Amino acid sequence: MNQYRGSKRPKLLIVLITFALLASGLVFSFDHVTASSTTANTTDNKLPTVKSMDHLRKLLSENSYNYRIMAKGMAIDEAIPAPAVSNDMAQSKEFSSTNIQVAGVDEADLIKTDGTFIYQINNNALIITKAVPASQMQVMSRLDFSNDSFYPVDFYITDTRLVLIGTGHTERYLNPQPIRPLMEKYIMPPYYQEETTRAIVYDMSDKTNLVKTRELELKGNYLTSRRIGQTVYLISNDYLNYYPAQEVVPLPAYRDSAAGNQLTDIACEKISYFPNCIYNSYIVTAALQIDQPNQPAQVNSYLGTAENVYASLNNLYIAIPASARQVPVVKDSAVPEQSTPAVSTQIYRFSLKDKQINYSGSGTVPGRVLNQFSMDEYDNHFRIATTSEWYDRKSGAGSSNNIYILDNDLKIKGKIENIAPGEQIYSARFMGKRAYMVTFRTVDPLFVIDLSNPAQPTILGKLKIPGYSNYLHPYDENHIIGIGKDTVEMKGYGDQSQAYYLGIKVALFDVTDYNNPVEMDKVIIGDRGTESEVLQNHRALLFSREKNLLAFPITLAQIDKSNIKKAPGSLPAYGSFAFQGAYIYNISLDGGLRYKGRISHLSQEDYLKAGDYWSNPDSSIQRILYLGNNLYTVSNQAIMANQLSDLKPVGSIRF
């Protein structure tokens, strides 16, 4: 008994000492170095910088009211998609490319093609499949990361390079104060895991043997990226688990194979901050030259957080909601304030000149941004659509929507405010001198807005129809495709009108007459419960005006209307799972939207097993591509090829 108890005492002592050291905040790094001259251009002279660790702690303590913004980077679409880039290796004459926001600014995705090969992230692996000819598809290479602390998210391809981006973690050891010699052998330095963003560049000249040429790792969660030419721009959010008692605050860090392979802390004096928008986190930006493996990446760090990102060929913009210090008002409470202040959005511009990413200005607008497609740069002006929300004790909650045009100094030059009071923006699209905006509460108003005079934007017309569009895509200069949900309006609590969403709605709008936009055609797919990734991710859409082609993945829910008995005033019922795959339409101005067919990777047995819900993502179609005259559908289980003309199967490969 005594031997048992004695053997436990050192372990208990170790635990207690370790806990005390962690609680004291004495955190140092065993395996890190602190960057000074090794970090290229990490200080932007136009922003103040953190002077010391004490200054950093002071900034964080003074702004502890700011909450964390959970990162997001997906949204909808904005400028006419860039044409497919030709490739000397491509056997087919033409092929589809990723549906991007701005021509010339590529966006990473989980599936891409160069006209001959299809590249895909498949669970925790990267697979390259030779897709042409379609009847002889074969896997050329497979990189499996199942045993690595790396999870691939998306990637870019050029003629000879593949840039794989994903998330990982690194173990960081904490070095406590000196320990008495007698205790050293009993104490193992504690450590914790840090989330990181990793970009791995491969030379893929030989598709059967990809060669890693360099790697960049940023501390923090991967937010988004863009590629312009041979430069990839990365953004991560590094959230801080900071408490005022800590004497040492964790610093942002990075690891670049072109500058040594050691995780390097960015020194305090190299960290900039936004005076009006400080959060308990860091934004880490990087410019990576993918064709120059020996050139160190340019890494910058800012005290703050990034949420929505828009990029043009010249600038990158980060939009951050600015939190109010005031405590939210509770209706009928004793809180003296009569209302809560509306949230505003801080806009930070970063120049992409000379293949670098450097801060170049900031501005502020009222309201909150929906996504990246609520922002746009045109003719040296920045345009942004926002929704303002507030709460007043007397009148309750309120909202309205706005368009702001900012000049080159990011000062408001023109604006339209109080659009569609009581509603909020569901989608926005900027196209040259016009903007289109969909708001929603019970019906879907599509607003046509003239931006030709930046100082005086005006609403030209609007169209009110049932449903709403989550995503607006240009067909041409005078026609727009809207994809969203159909709705039904019903009386709700207190005899107030309430809208309930139903199936997927695809509509074609004619805006030739600015003052009187018209819904030319529409299709409704499925019932309540039908979903499509396009509603949240524009990259899932395949559209070609030249081929009269519109396609997207869908999970279909349908109601057996022959067995349903609906009581008067009852809520719309959810449908049961009926299909997962690709819906394909012919689309033209003469013929409108015409259903062409659908393709699924599920077997008949899969459908019989599914029941009311579908829960096998591996056989769900994620992307639809075309290579020459064939349509390819891609899932984790298979790639299938069908003729574009009649959707007749011509080949497939299973993984």
Short description:
With 655 residues, the chain is mainly beta.
Name some characteristics of this structure:
655 residues; mainly beta; disordered N terminus
Specify the helix fraction band. under 10%
Compute the average pLDDT.
85
Morphology call = globular
- Strand order in space, largest sheet: 1-13-12-9-8-7-6
Q: Helix/strand/pairing class, anyone?
A: mainly beta
Biggest β-sheet strands, sense, barrel: 7 strands, mixed
- Residues in β-strands, percent: over 45%
Per DSSP E runs of 2 or more residues, the count of β-strands stands at: 41
Could you give the distance between the termini? Answer: 58 Å
Radius of gyration over C-alpha positions, nearest whole angstrom: 27 Å
Residue runs with pLDDT of under 50 for 5 or more positions: 1-32, 36-44, 67-92, 175-179, 324-336
Give the number of helices. Answer: 4
Q: How would the blueprint of this fold be written?
A:
Blueprint: H1 2-24, E1 33-35, H2 53-62, E2 111-113, E3 117-122, E4 125-130, E5 138-144, E6 150-157, E7 161-173, H3 181-184, E8 191-203, E9 211-219, E10 221-228, E11 231-239, E12 253-256, E13 264-266, E14 271-273, E15 281-289, E16 298-303, E17 308-311, E18 315-322, E19 339-340, E20 344-351, E21 358-366, E22 375-378, E23 381-392, E24 396-406, E25 412-419, E26 424-431, E27 434-440, E28 444-450, E29 458-465, E30 468-476, E31 479-491, E32 497-510, E33 518-525, E34 542-544, E35 549-558, E36 576-588, E37 592-599, H4 604-610, E38 623-627, E39 630-634, E40 638-643, E41 649-654
Parallel strand pairs: 1-13, 14-16
Antiparallel strand pairs: 2-3, 3-4, 4-5, 6-7, 7-8, 8-9, 9-12, 10-11, 11-15, 12-13, 15-16, 17-18, 18-20, 19-23, 20-21, 22-23, 23-24, 24-25, 26-27, 27-28, 28-29, 30-31, 31-32, 32-33, 34-35, 35-36, 36-37, 38-39, 39-40, 40-41
